[in-house]
Amino acid sequence: MSLIIGATxxxxxxxxVPNAPILTLKxxxxxxxxxxxxxxxxxxxxxxxxNNVTLGNARFLPTVTGSYTIANSIQSTTQTRxxxxxNRINGANNTGSNYGVDLNWTIFDxxxxxxxxxxxKQRRQLGQVRLQDTVQRTVAAVITTYFDLINQxxxxxxxxxxxxxxxxxxxxxxxRFQVGRVARLxxxxxxxALNTDTATLIGQQQTFKASKIELxxxxxxxxxxxxxxxxxxxxxQGLILANIINQAQTQNPTILSAQISQRLSEINxxxxxxxxxxxxxxxxxxxxxxxxxxxxxxxxQNSRGLxxxxxxxxxIFDxxxxxxxxxxxxxxxxxxxxxxAQTRIEVEAQISNLFSSYLSxxxxxxxxxxxxxxxxxxxxxxxxxxxxxxxxxLEIREAQRNFLNAQSIxxxxxxxxxxxxxxxxxxxxxxxxx
Length: 434
Known about the structure:
61% of the residues lie in helices and 18% in strands. The protein starts with a strand and ends in a 7-residue tail after the last helix. It has helices at 25-35, 37-51, 112-178, 184-218, 241-251, 253-273, 321-388, 393-427; strands at residues 2-5, 8-11, 63-80, 86-108, 279-292, 300-313. It has eight helices and six strands; from the N terminus they run ββααββααααββαα. Helix 2 (37-51) runs antiparallel to helix 3 (112-178) and helix 3 (112-178) runs antiparallel to helix 8 (393-427). The strands form two sheets. A four-stranded antiparallel beta sheet has the order 3-4-5-6, with no helix packed on it. Strands 1-2 form a two-stranded antiparallel ribbon. It folds into two domains: 2-59 and 109-278 and 314-427, Up-down Bundle (Outer membrane efflux proteins (OEP)), CATH 1.20.1600.10; 74-106 and 281-313, no CATH class. The radius of gyration is 40 Å and the shape is elongated.
């Protein structure tokens, strides 16, 4: 950017890294969606919840197990028969084996399996909501950090313009001192002003570097990766408060999570009440058995066959624990309803505060843009008057401060509005991922 001051042209540096690629906001978002660790962790958690939604996990289906056992022993046996004869067997090798297939199936558990299946589906939905929330939060962090870099880059350029003016002021002071029109004190003051501006610039550049490292961290790449950013902040000026609040009721992740938690607490009560009903299950299986016992009456025995049965249990009395669990489950439902209502109020309050910040930022942008032009013209006039010796160094310094403050307020207003806009869209899950 060029600043025309009287007959002097001052060109501010653009603070770009030579040979470094320009990282567009779209590219930054795409990199974060691929690399960000929080998104990847949340995605895996969501897939786990999806995998858990099966009839088998809800205990609708039977379980089938196979078994095989073999046992061996070596025994010495002495048998005294009824006719007083004695039979001695030394080192008899006894063997036995069993193998078979068994099926167990709970056919009624007080409708608990239906409640469990509903709970699994709700947890799947909760995983999807949390994944979407993580994605939106990450993208919002990318956007705000990216535009923070643009804001800081503009602040650096403004400081570089002021430093250029301070150098011009120092040169004028030296020229006037050489011809005896001012005291050396004016030269010293001009040098102090230049040093102060330079120190401020160094601090701003360090902040800019730290923000670059932070953006690289969010993108999950080498913190020292160099890049350049765009130089324009465009604020969406079409946001409407009523629309945002309505969208939040159906799309805000915090509200949706509270609603799912309420449904889970209601399902939990159904699961607890299921233990009041009988638990009925059927079993069946087919078993093969072989045994060899030299000392037995039947030295070799083989058997096979089908077994089946029906089992039913019912809770008659458990020390009033059933009543206690149901009572607590009802209280959990009440708590979840209260939490859901509280969440709605907190989200609406957050939206109202952000929208107020958004509107004030838009007003400051309009005011700041004209104020920068006025401050620039005032600085032009002041520097020319300083060159002619009609104003003091303090007056030119004040004009510099006004110019720098006007630019700082303007750029900060743009950033403030952009952050508020981004956060409002993130709250409603409406940030574009493209």
